[in-house]
Design brief:
Length: 340
């Protein structure tokens, strides 16, 4: 088989393959069980293999690269236009094969094992933070059913809850009091878990020279630095610095036609978690800039006056994403702005 390009539709158990030769003629349509995939590609001459960026895609891409193939990941939104007629595994594999052969196709950067380890820490910690928030909201809502209202924020809840449980004349029954005591212990356990994963990320940050370099940028702390390291790796998947904020959805969305450019709000594409971290860090930079007089602070303050603080925060996040790419692709350290 003279196969030059292969589309591989990933699944849990049944994988679909679609291969073409150098002339674009179909040379293979095949279905394989999970245990057969690597053995099949081991006996196949090196070729270009396209995969949708989905669960397990980075693992399969790394394994195929070990076997000598050129494995590339494609975002599902870029594969969809090539699907013919109805959706099924065979049509999906054919669409992936067609998409990966396009000269201007955009590919998803392949993550190493180390990057996935870092990202796993962030995903688990982020999930625990969401669980803690949901748990606190549930607790606050249940208390309101007994006429007890607590202000927003975890700090208020942690402070008031012991007082409520110790007060005998607040209308809580014994059953309700026991229930809220159990919920308090669950909140304490979630706090400990979030802190534990935060400490693991901090240890990882301190042990990585690259992460420490990223952490020197105002608005980028240990959590954001390690998240950038996990997402961007060495940054060489991007040709220019401006591609990174575009990939993260930190640039204006366009709705232009007839030669009339029209820019809307930010596109909000890409990694929501990383974009959120960059913007929240940028908010702190914008707030601190009010008391500084360096070149960057003057630019931020002028932007706040002309537009507003939210737009300034997104602009700083955009700039920090570009700075992060520069630090990852070069050996330079961050140089802080010089005061006038």
């Amino acid at each position: 088989m003279n196969i030059t390009t292969m589309g591989l539709d990933l699944a849990k158990n049944v994988f679909q393959l679609h291969g073409v030769d150098g002339y674009g003629k179909v040379a293979l349509r095949k279905q394989l069980k999970r245990a057969q995939v690597l053995a099949f590609f081991a006996n196949l001459p090196p070729c270009l293999v396209g995969l949708e960026a989905c669960a397990g895609a980075h693992y399969w891409a790394r394994e195929l690269i070990k076997l000598g193939h050129d494995a590339r990941l494609i975002s599902p939104q870029f594969v969809k236009p090539y699907v013919k007629s109805n959706k099924n595994d065979a049509n999906d594999a054919e669409a992936i094969c067609e998409a990966v052969s396009r000269p201007n196709m955009r590919f998803v950067p392949l993550k190493s094992i180390e990057q996935q380890d870092i990202q796993m820490l962030h995903r688990v910690r982020s999930g625990l933070v969401k669980e803690r928030t949901a748990h606190a909201n549930r607790l606050r809502g249940l208390l309101s059913e007994y006429g007890i209202v607590i202000g927003q924020g975890l700090a208020q809840l942690r402070k008031r809850l012991p007082e409520i449980l110790d007060t005998a004349d607040n209308g809580l029954t014994m059953a309700a009091r026991q229930l809220f005591a159990d919920l308090q212990q669950q909140l304490i356990a979630l706090d400990k878990q979030v802190s534990s994963y935060g400490e693991k990320i901090l240890v990882l940050h301190r042990s990585s020279p690259v992460s420490k370099t990223l952490g020197g940028v105002p608005g980028i702390g240990p959590i954001t630095a390690t998240a950038l390291l996990a997402a961007l790796g060495d940054g060489k998947a991007f040709d220019k610095a401006r591609q990174v904020p575009a990939w993260l959805g930190l640039v204006p969305r366009q709705d232009s036609s007839g030669g009339k450019p029209r820019l809307l709000g930010i596109s909000k594409r890409g990694d929501t978690y990383l974009r959120t971290l960059l913007i929240h860090g940028a908010r702190a930079v914008v707030k601190a800039a009010a008391n500084k007089d360096d070149a960057q602070s003057r630019w931020i303050n002028d932007l706040v006056k002309r537009r507003n603080a939210n737009i300034a925060a997104v602009a700083v996040a955009n700039k920090n994403a570009r700075i992060a790419w520069a630090l990852l692709t070069r050996t330079d350290s961050y140089r802080a702005p010089i005061s006038a």
